[in-house]
Amino acid sequence: MPEATTLRTLSDPGHAGPASRLSRLAPVHWLALIFLVAALGFAAVAWATGNGFYLRLATEALIFAGLAMSVDLLLGYTGLLSLGQALYFGLGAYVSALVLRDVAPSFWLAMAAALLAGGMAGLIGGVIANRVKGVYFALITFGLAQVAAKTVYNTRALGASDGLIGIPQIRVGFGPVSLDTADPLSFFLLVLGLTVTAYAGLSYLMDAPFGRTLAAIRANEKRVPFLGFNAWRYKLAVYVLAACVAALAGALYPMLRGFVSPELMFFETSGNAVITVIVGGVGTLVGPVMGSLLLTALRSVVGSWTEHHLIVVGVIFMLSVIFLRKGLVGALLARLSRRGEAGRTAP
Amino acid sequence: MSKNAFPRSVHALSPLLALLMASGAAPGAAQAADPIRIGVVTPLSGTYAPIGQQVRWGLELATKEVNAAGGVMGRQIELLFEDEEANPAVATQKAEKLFQVNKVDFLTGTVNSGSTLAVGQLAERNGRLIATTVSFSDAITTDKCSPNVFRVNARAGQQSAALAEWLAKDKPKAKVYYLGPDYEMGRSTVAAFKSAAEKTGAQSTGEVFAPLGSKDYSQYFGQLRAARPSVLYTSTAGNDTVRLLTQMSEYGLLRNLTIVGASGTVTAQNIGAIGKAADGFVTGVGYSAELATPENQAFVAAFRKEYNTAPDLYGADSYGLIGFFKAAVEKAGGTDTDTLRKAMEGLSWTTPQGSKTMRAGDHQAIQDMYAVRIASDGTSNRFDVVGTVPGDAAIGPDLCTRF
């Protein structure tokens, strides 16, 4: 497990100053746009060839990308390593599952309930975890998630170790039109739309004064009060925000798979999210999305080929920490900007 | 910083991947000579890998034998393995791949009950059938039963019923004390055995639950001695059993006390560490490699020859599944889901464990259960069969209401 201090140094260079802001940030958004076009192209190909499985696998990758984005908010923008983000993901999944199964098969109600639960739990967890810094923050978040996971694991009303099955497939209404979560293409497009919305909203927020203050906290927390800001409040706010993002992503899981199980809250889920962020690119938001798609595809392909697939993922993680210190997106951006410079200098 | 480890083509990564993924499917119309594909989603890595290994060996040995004898209706059986990591979230994803991409005709292998339930639901949504050969949670064939899920192994209720039956015969009116691990499964296992034992005349003298992974069990020994039981029931597992039994042995508590327990309490994995303290432990289980039937002896000999180790419960149940599947396909005349389900319901078939019958009402196999006593001198161990409980006596009522 890498230490929080080393991870902090991996974050992106995109906040050097207002002058370089536009030229540095634009390529990230270009990358996101290329990704979106590629995703739509993939959807078209998969739909045309009738490959429901790959659409649903990609949907799952996007759902876990939501969790990874929430880790990135903390790790990449604020410099806080959360090893327990699966707590909020699992909470969203369980709340959504219970609402869909026992209250009403309504997409919007499930999402609202998950958001509310995620926000409340994030507030409580944030107050506890933000009492400490660095590696202790990581340990507290880890501990909180373990406590929650064990509680669910031993609560019979929540299905205990067996989890909950029988979550219905639902129709999602947008005014006059509606789509079916059982249809792989519709649900993929819905989740893709939500991911893009989350990316756009969070990128905007990270560019706004709120995000600048987070960057200041990441750079040097002790100096932030001298600028007239209360660092603790900002850290709590971003923690709650990340919890909400994770809970919303989690709420989509039972709609896709029809069940929830305590494994969704286990450290494996939290740890995978951190790996996804680091492989994809810390502090870029689009990196976690690409990382999630890459790792999900790899796990599925390599997993069918050998049972030693965890070694493959581990080696990729180590290689990307050593050679791609800014992740997949960092490497792509370096390439894009070099090409841009070359274009400018050449006549 | 690196010299850009990625080639230029990385820009095209996502669409390329998409194309790769989309072209991976192999649509194949089933012809008579095509192999019958059985998907196996089982833990091949992690804590449950030893169980997955037995499942794999049992299935592979049976498949090899069936294929060598001409296959099923002239078609060979092909097994496709996927690692589920004992995680339902992984298991459903892998099972979906086997159903939709590899177009398997049947699926098995799930170990933990959560995976079996989640994959069972997936099978319903994909219109296919699955069977578990390992999961013993009662829920799978009672309140969470599914028309698409079959269980060929004995469930927890059958195991405790068999043990209680043996207890009533061998030690009538026993005074029983219960010691379980303090988590949901540990408590429910104790509760199930307690009610079964009380029904057959045993007397409960007390119960205590120790945290999972307890290092020191001596703190419970005072209560245990004060209750003066003649029998101790425990549902600990793995290293907890090692510590419990060796500490009891050090305190001299094993004298004049019969220890009985759940089938997972003492296994091939931890018996070496328990050593002589395991001697005399009795459990109710659906299989022992020491069963004296000719079918079992042939099976054990073939298994040893192939894998150089003895089969355990999971290996035997998985081996028997292929016989079940073969008989059902031959009866149905194909692998169509609805006719295959009909053929499986009420089917009787032969296994190394004796004859099994698939109950139509809840898709739970009925089989003879065995009380098995461990004979250990510290270096070598035998699982002796000390009692047989007929299948009808151990099966319990059909509690499935969905079909």
Automatic annotation (TrEMBL), chain A:
Molecular-function annotations in GO: branched-chain amino acid transmembrane transporter activity
One GO cellular component term noted in the UniProt record for this chain: plasma membrane
Location, primary (coarse class): membrane
Keywords: Cell membrane, Membrane, Transmembrane, Transmembrane helix
Topological category with respect to the lipid bilayer: Multi-pass membrane protein
Keyword Metal-binding attributed: no
Subcellular localization(s) per the UniProt record: Cell membrane
Transmembrane residue ranges: 28-49, 61-87, 107-128, 135-153, 185-205, 236-253, 273-298, 310-334
Xref: PANTHER family: ABC TRANSPORTER ATP-BINDING PROTEIN (PTHR30482:SF17), HIGH-AFFINITY BRANCHED-CHAIN AMINO ACID TRANSPORT SYSTEM PERMEASE (PTHR30482)
Name of protein: Branched-chain amino acid ABC transporter permease
Lineage: Bacteria, Pseudomonadati, Pseudomonadota, Alphaproteobacteria, Rhodospirillales
UniProtKB/TrEMBL annotation, chain B:
Taxonomy, superkingdom: Bacteria
Alphabetical UniProt keywords: Amino-acid transport, Signal, Transport
Gene3D superfamilies (alphabetical): 3.40.50.2300
Domain Leucine-binding protein: 35-378
Keyword Cell division part of the UniProt annotation: no
One Pfam family cited in the UniProt record for this chain: Peripla_BP_6
GO biological process: amino acid transport
Signal peptide start-end: 1-32
Protein family according to the UniProt entry: Belongs to the leucine-binding protein family.
Name by which UniProt lists this protein: Branched-chain amino acid ABC transporter substrate-binding protein
Organism, scientific name: Azospirillum lipoferum
Taxonomic placement: Bacteria, Pseudomonadati, Pseudomonadota, Alphaproteobacteria, Rhodospirillales
